[in-house]
Amino acid sequence: MERLDAIDAEIVRLLRLNARMSNAKLAEKVGLSASACLRRIRALEHRGVLRGYTAIVGHSSGEAAIAVIINITLEQQTEDVFKRFEEAVRSHPEIQECYLMTGDSDYLLRVEVENAAEFERIHTEILSMLPGVARIRSSFSIRNVLAARRRPAPRRRDG
To answer: Which of 16, 56, 67, 137 is the most exposed place for a label (fewest CB within 10 A)?
Structure first.
């Protein structure tokens, strides 16, 4: 991916802090007209720099959901098996995150559940049915210590 210029980098930084910021406010903050700012946002989306917008949702019951971290090992590590697995994962909104990993497992997934029964349903109806799965290892969170933190700005190298 090509490097972002200073204005695009600032647009991305500001949207990471507040994706609901109006285009007019964003344009003002980066020193562009609203139409020029919107063109840059659309270009960033087209290039895949901005891949979507999301909301972090609290739980109305007052009880926090349980985060479950799932390590998946596939039967084979081929491009076709990876592709089929990833397409299947994308079709299940219950899976909030999925990462291709190095190390002992092939993928790390994150789901949030209200209780063990809900996880059992997800395990039975979704995880165990994903194509190419050889092993599933799940860990339940006890308490959320830190979440949804923005990535720090890269350090500048002088010299």
So the answer is: 56
Q: CA 132, CA 88: separation in Å to the nearest integer?
A: 10
Contact 133, 75 (CB under 8 A): yes
Closest to 31 in 3D by CA, of 43, 14, 50: 14
* Number of residues in the chain: 159
Cα dihedral across residues 31, 37, 41, 46: positive or negative: negative
pTM given for the model: 0.63
Q: Which residue in 80, 68, 64, 147 sits closest to 108, CA to CA?
A: 68
Q: Give the span between the Cα atoms of 118 and 101, in whole angstroms.
A: 26
**pLDDT tens across 66-75, in order?**
999 999 999 9
Sheet bearing 95-100, strands edge to edge: 95-100, 107-113, 66-74, 133-140
In total, how many domains does the chain have?
A: 2
86 and 129 in a single domain? The answer is yes
The pair phi, psi for residue 71, each rounded to 5°, is: -100, 125
Residue 61 lies in a domain: no
